[in-house]
Structure formats: structure tokens, C-alpha cells
Amino acid sequence: MVESTVKVVNDLGLHARAAAQLVRLAGTFESTIKIIRPDKGVFADAKSILNLLTLAASIGTELHLQADGPDEATALAAVEDLFKRGFGEH
What is the pTM of this model? Predict the structure, then answer.
């Protein structure tokens, strides 16, 4: 398992369109990808849009990422990049 921390940088946060991008990306990997919101004690499967929306992660929210599986390092790097790029919204 590999882990890292990211911050939500896009103005609208992890809203439906951004979550859909994340689900599409996560679905290209074999590994399981978990997004954890430590300040609220909740987590979501990155392959489930409904799970992701329950995080209610607005701009500035810090999230913890975990990937586990055969392509975990590549998966984690891709998800980190998506967050760093603000889901292409800035």
C-alpha cells in the first residue's frame, strides 16, 4: 500500500464533475484507491461517485490517499496529479 496527502485546490471542490473525472481515472487501475477525509473521519472508494460526493470536500480540504494493488504507485501518482491540476478547472 502507498499513501499520500493532497489538498483540494479547485474553486468548486470535489463536486460532481470533478468526482466523475476521478471515478473515470480510478477505474483505469486495478488497485483499490481510497480517499480519506481525516477531519471528518470519513472515507470513500475512488471508483464510486456517490462515495466521493459524501466527502463534501470543498476548496482547501486536505485528503489522504491510499492505493493498494499491483499498479498502486502509478494509480496514486495519477490521482495526486489530478488533484494538483485542480481537475483542469483553474
Answer: 0.94
